[in-house]
Amino acid sequence: MYNVLMFVDSGVDDSLALMYALQHPEINLVGVVSAYGNITKEQSINNTAYLLKLAGREDIPIIAGASGPLSGEAAVFYPEIHGEEGLGPIQPPENFISKIKVYDINKIIEIVNEYKNDLVIVGVGRQTDLALPLILYGKDAYKDVNAFYLMGGAFLVPGNVTPEAEANFYADPIAADSVLEKAKNIYIFPLNVTNKAIIRPETIDFIADNTQSPFKDLIKPAYDYYYEAYQKLVPGIKGAPLHDVLVLSVLTNPDLAKYVKRRVRIEQFGKAKGKSIADFRPVPEVDPPETLDNIAMEFDLERFVIDFIEVFLAQKNQK
């Protein structure tokens, strides 16, 4: 069983990743940090609360994250890809926030201490909220966390918000660089692999027709909206890449991906803002072992698709 603390910004792929985590029989979701990213912080929290209620898991604490990056710049949202509320055409009820208890950022440290040396942090949104405990509590804030699984970056491939930068790292490069430098045992899932994590519409149709998941009525309309947006972004694409779901799939299937170990830094300013930097020369510079990150470079697509189907067809006992 994996005790998982998730950091999300509740766009379509974040939401599908949260659904996957709630469905997975080997994942014990111990908290969700919900913040700005594809949508506003308030919309993100509302979506998270909605999904937890559908799953019958209102016992899972929701932690309110940041409204914008550490730089103080205005956050940019992407309704054309994720919909006005982050779930494509789905409009969750707007009153969830007023009815639920939402914790502040200190709850992260409480959870880390509660699951000392038995906790994985999965960050599939902006890095701001992951960086905040490092600012508030110092570089040892996460010393008792087993590993970090992060969706972000682009190495040797184009970015998705600029020619060189991926959205999660671009939105707050100061936070991303801080997390990558101070946290230990990091697994990074960049666009190199997540762009290939394609789930086709016929797979979604099969799941929607056969699943008993509490998210049965959300999966297809959210995916269809997302896929339509991707068809405009990448003409000819045969499905939609579920960037964030891949991270959890590899967590629970460790041999699904292959990695290279490199020290990763994030460019913070100028035209290359948000660019992921690692030394891919045949003989790279030697960095201290504790600074090296695991960068996913390959994965087994067929096994990923099968895992995705199996998880959404599984019957998980609700707590």
UniProtKB/TrEMBL annotation:
The keyword Transcription does not apply. CDD domains: nuc_hydro. It comes from the Bacteria. Residues 4-304 form the Inosine/uridine-preferring nucleoside hydrolase domain. GO terms for molecular function: hydrolase activity. Keywords: Glycosidase, Hydrolase. This is Nucleoside hydrolase.
